[in-house]
Amino acid sequence: MKRNKYWIVIGIQVIFILVIRWFSSNALRVESYYSTGIYVYLSVFLRYLLGWLPFSIGDALYGAIVIWFLYRLIKISKVIINKEVSRPRLIASIQRFVVTVLLIYILFNSLWGINYNRVGIASQLGLSMDKYSVNDLKILNTVLLQKVNESNNLLLQKHVPEMTSKEIFNKAMLAYREVNKQYPFLNYHPASIKTSLWGWMGNYIGFLGYYNPFTGEGQVNTTVPKFSQPYTNCHEIAHQLGYAKENEANFVGYLAAAASKDETFHYSVYLDLFLYANRNLFLTDSTEAKAFTKELHPAVKKNLREWRQFNESHKNRVEPVIRWMYGKYLESNQQPSGVLSYNEVNSFLIAYYKKYGKL
Is the pLDDT of residue 171 over 90? Predict the structure, then answer.
């Protein structure tokens, strides 16, 4: 009888999943009823519920799940070694596993994942996302190079001290307050951006930040060089606002960081975007791409050396595997370019520049 109950639960879960798949198949429907409707209230509720806590509940939850998984793995291994596996017991274990996986899938999509299928920021801003040319990329490199050097010069002239992670969190919220004046749909309140408990591990598997769809918290790896953190904060907040795709989160993060009144945020975002644009140009015109990097100011080049040294000091054999797995996850969620989806922010920047004549 118990096994039959499991099959009933699995059947109900499959129906839920089919409804989610059907609903997600229409981008306009997702945008109208979920991303700018249901999800807005869900995300605000989660941030009110957990945002006031000084640590990440989501990170603690991930840690507990890993411990539980290891415990179950040891227990199952003992059962197999002692040959205590019976057919009914094996079937029940498989059923419980299937129920758990399907439940996670349903919660992930219901709480956030459906946003992968929305119309998105290009439609909201009326951008024409046409295929761009090599010349467009060169223009983008020129504009971003100027922005990077200008913002770096201002930081040096004003002798701006390095901010703490808490100050960066607060100024990221202020940045969204500024961009919200221009784009009402980018309303970020209340806040729930926190220091990752697993930042030390992130240095070895290659993450700067991440969003937890089950708790609504945005986590930032605060152990990396400070100049990269302001833009990462803005990127993770964009995920909280329902921009699930990485290229869109990068672009929304740009809008916020560029709207900030703090030059540190300008430097952080323009440096990162310049690197994306320069890498793309390198694939088609490596000579021109190298010429652009040579024009970076010495202080900027020093930061890039610091970043390379930091990455080199944490280089390991696990990161490429994690990167590959993450790429497959992105591919399965409407991002066929995998980890290269981050670079696709260039198409948004070029479309935005063509429309407004500035970045």
Answer: yes
